[in-house]
């Protein structure tokens, strides 16, 4: 009937009003929605930039840019050969080792071999001046049972016998390599109880997502408190670790500590002949004042 037709048209108009882009992308709703969407696959900090320009894939617990949507291959190649190309490789996992240098080197020698090239004891790397790369094996099993390739950086010496080492591993290899490191250093006890919470949302944030996604009631303009209560971005742990698991372990006998620093340290790769020039123009040395 005529009345029903008019009612249908009226409902269609109401829906289109509620679908207003400005309302859907209001910041308080947008951040809550982003938190909600990272429950299974963690986003890198450059995710939004990549999501607008790349086909995204879900791998190793992360959401990563796989291939560009535009034909930018020639531009990327030109940047690599003549200028500078930047890649976000923050999805690589960082394992941190702390303890006495002699004790670290003694056990690390069991999972690599001088026959394959440099080791953790290479002088230029041990000083902290250069990054090293090598293949890891299960303890005392070389040349069998290879775990995979890693890169590593020693923190420069500060006069103490205690040193700090960062080992960067691919997320697909992290659990196996972490398990082997904990075994050779006998780091079985959690250094601190994991108090992090899983990536869950409060009832208020759940309601905000529902308001943003549904076609129901419009947000009340007089809700001033709601506008101030902007939810904080929550990224707990990383795509390779359950949020309830511990992230730091210690050996009571030697004092060696292993920590999982994944997603705590961002990492970018610069490729091209002008990479050094870009860094020198971008980074400025801090003025350190000694008292």
From TrEMBL:
A Gene Ontology cellular component where this protein is annotated is: ribonuclease MRP complex
Domain called Pop1 N-terminal: residue spans: 5-99
- Which biological processes are named by the entry's GO terms? tRNA 5'-leader removal
InterPro entries xref list: Pop1 (IPR039182), Pop1_N (IPR009723)
- Highest taxon in the source lineage: Eukaryota
The name under which this protein is listed is: POP1 protein
Species assigned in the record: Polioptila caerulea (Blue-grey gnatcatcher)
- Gene that codes for this? Pop1
């Amino acid at each position: 009937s005529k009345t029903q037709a008019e009612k249908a048209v009226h409902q269609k108009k109401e829906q289109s009003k509620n679908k207003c882009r400005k309302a859907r992308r209001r910041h308080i709703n947008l951040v809550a929605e982003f938190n909600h969407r990272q429950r299974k696959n963690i986003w890198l900090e450059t995710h939004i930039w990549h999501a607008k320009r790349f086909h995204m894939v879900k791998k190793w617990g992360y959401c990563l840019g796989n291939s560009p949507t535009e034909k930018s291959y020639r531009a990327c190649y030109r940047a690599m050969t003549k200028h500078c190309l930047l890649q976000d490789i923050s999805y690589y996992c960082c394992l941190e080792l702390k303890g006495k240098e002699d004790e670290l080197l003694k056990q690390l020698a069991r999972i690599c071999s001088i026959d394959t090239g440099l080791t953790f004891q290479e002088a230029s790397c041990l000083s902290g001046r250069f990054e090293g790369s090598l293949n890891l094996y299960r303890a005392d099993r070389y040349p069998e049972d290879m775990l995979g390739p890693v890169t590593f950086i020693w923190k420069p010496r500060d006069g103490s016998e205690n040193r700090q080492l960062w080992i960067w591993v691919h997320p697909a290899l992290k659990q196996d390599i972490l398990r082997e490191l904990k075994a050779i250093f006998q780091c079985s006890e959690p250094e601190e109880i994991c108090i992090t919470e899983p990536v869950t949302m409060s009832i208020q944030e759940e309601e905000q997502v529902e308001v943003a996604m549904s076609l129901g009631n419009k947000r009340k303009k007089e809700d001033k408190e709601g506008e101030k209560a902007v939810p904080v971005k929550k990224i707990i742990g990383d795509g390779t670790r359950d949020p309830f698991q511990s992230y730091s372990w210690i050996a009571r006998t030697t004092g060696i500590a292993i920590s999982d620093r994944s997603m705590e340290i961002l990492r970018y790769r610069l490729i091209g002949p002008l990479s050094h020039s870009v860094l020198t123009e971008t980074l400025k040395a801090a003025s350190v004042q000694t008292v």
